[in-house]
Amino acid sequence: MKKQSSKKVSRSVLLGAAFLMATSSIGPGFLTQTTVFTQQLAASFGFVILISLILDVVVQMNVWRIIGVSGLRGQEIANKVLPGLGVVLAILIVIGGLAFNIGNVAGAGLGLNAMLGLDPITGAIISAVVAIFIFVVKEAGKAMDKFAQFAGFIMILLMIYVAFKTFPPVGEALANTVMPETISWFAIVTLVGGTVGGYITFAGGHRLLDAGVKGIESLPEITKSSVTGIAATGIMRVALFLAVLGVVSQGLVIDADNPAASVFQLAAGNIGYRIFGIIMWAAAITSVVGAAYTSVSFIRTFHPIIEKYHNWIIIGFIIVSTTIFAFVGRPVNILIIVGALNALILPLALGTLLVGAYKKKIVGEYKHPLWLTITGVIVVAIMAYLGIITLIEQLPLLFK
């Protein structure tokens, strides 16, 4: 009986880590990006999803394996590769996580507005209370796992339902996924950055560490969990893509001011708009939880007091994000510039971990697969180049 119980706990933890990563990446920006790019690229967006998913798998398998084998968090590995680098990485992650959490809180408020007609600020405060409650309960880690799984399944089921309602041209989508009429590298980079960039890169790996899943003997489970997370994100992305494609192929006009909500309304009327509210709220609230948890996990090792009271610091993180949204709104210029910085966190983090994978003081006798190293280096090079270009383009906006 004990053996079976241990297996159950392990499966729950693995699914929890996978869905924490997946639901962290499926935020308000995810819904808007997918809708806008599908409008622009039509069926060719299928190719963008395919390439971005391949790159996502490369990133997550590298990051989760190296964290799991070393038994160290991202900032600890970075400090062992180059003293002080972990502090730099932690600062970037926390600043990025805080800025994007303002957007996540705003998205949760908009979700409750669409679902129940509540004022967005009131909705944001209620959502923050729900997120805080998860970290107040005794078994916060288990509560977070269950919440992420439940919200993830609800989002996927509702999204698939809406996709069916729009009768998308599936054959055309499949053909363009393999042989696209148009290729947008900007869309690919945006999707990769939004799915595995910034704090999201480490969400699942750090959760597994906290649950005690580490060491070479845990590699099969770690790999399975990382791929499950990307698969969940991929199902959601494909379902939303097909829903939007179905609307676009019918010649219906999507509202530019609120594209994602418009798609759901066009697909299923007022019920569709309420469904959008549920999905937006679930996407945003899980991203609030994921951003707060992962951002604070980057400073936990810096002082014993932070480690001791990390749940309360997570709660403080959520309160600060909500307060800024309630009193200042969404600081658009700051969000844009932090978004560009987030694009640079991925190559910095992945590059550092790949170096760490070849240091015995970090991974012991573990041999990192060559194919993962080579594909990882390619992703680092592509994302670093495009991230720098994006940052240069966006910097002037900060001073407008």
TrEMBL record:
Transmembrane segments: 41-60, 81-102, 114-135, 147-164, 184-209, 230-253, 273-299, 311-328, 334-358, 370-392
A biological process term (GO) from this entry: iron ion transmembrane transport
Key words of the record: Membrane, Transmembrane, Transmembrane helix
Source domain of life: Bacteria
Protein name: Membrane protein
Topological relation to the membrane, as annotated: Multi-pass membrane protein
Matches recorded under InterPro entries: NRAMP_fam (IPR001046)
Pfam families cross-referenced by the UniProt entry: Nramp
Localization per record: Membrane
Any one Gene Ontology molecular-function term assigned to this protein's record: manganese ion transmembrane transporter activity
GO CC term (a single one): plasma membrane
Signal sequence extent: none
